[in-house]
Amino acid sequence: MTSATDTPSPAAIRLIATDLDGTLLRDDKTVSDRTVAALAAAEEAGVEVFFVTGRPARWMDVVSDHVHGHGLAICANGAAVADLHDGGRLLKVRPLERLIALDIVHTLRTAVPGTSFAVELSTGIHYEPAYPPFHLDPGATVAVAEKLLHEETPGVGAPVLKLLAHHTELSPDEFLDLARAAAGYRASFTRSSPTALLEISGPGVSKASTLELCCAERGISPAEVVAFGDMPNDVEMLSWAGTSYAMGNAHPAAIAAASGQTATNGEDGVAVVIERIVAERRAADAAR
Length: 288
What we know:
This protein is of the alpha/beta class. It has nine helices and 14 strands.
């Protein structure tokens, strides 16, 4: 495994893909001055920066002031691509079909009793009475998941970006393993919370698969991408990118998937790597 001081040829890097919580953001959910400067320097050097997160587009205010050229963000673990220059308008949606979501709800209620659910739509989140009050929207509907997922006219309602499942007694990884064993063939299961909170997307939908689509549209190959992450929902992205770094505070699965490791999010681990990429790129340009 390489360290933050071992980076690929700076001339080969065209895009930086970074997770937010536990990665780019400090624990107080701010972006440090050092990281802000590193992001700007990367864009000035001709390297695009993509924010790739489990957050919905409406929670991207933490970084909306720090987007530069393109302003795009991959949100909801790959279920949506948002334009942060246009108020988070969704440009692409990869939904979870409601009938599949309903089947997963029924399966998990049986296989893992005590599970509560929330439904993340493109228009906002709605949740069951037993679902814990994390970051819940004031306008949310509170009802059983079966009602939240019901459509009077199929195909008319807002797309489902994620189904969220929570358990109060199981450990996060134990819950993920049980849920994948019971219904993993129907959808993509992952997690990013320190609690037993699962994030369920459409089949094949992940940060990596949507990042791959966005890169293909730009003619960017995996070898030209550097990725950063810290949790299981980053694993596919860290594996896909030609060069990837798990944070010093990362989950073991993220560390195993990454080609390198950098400092913690509190120590500006993303900025450490970007600064080196930019410095080496400038040195190479000066030598030509």
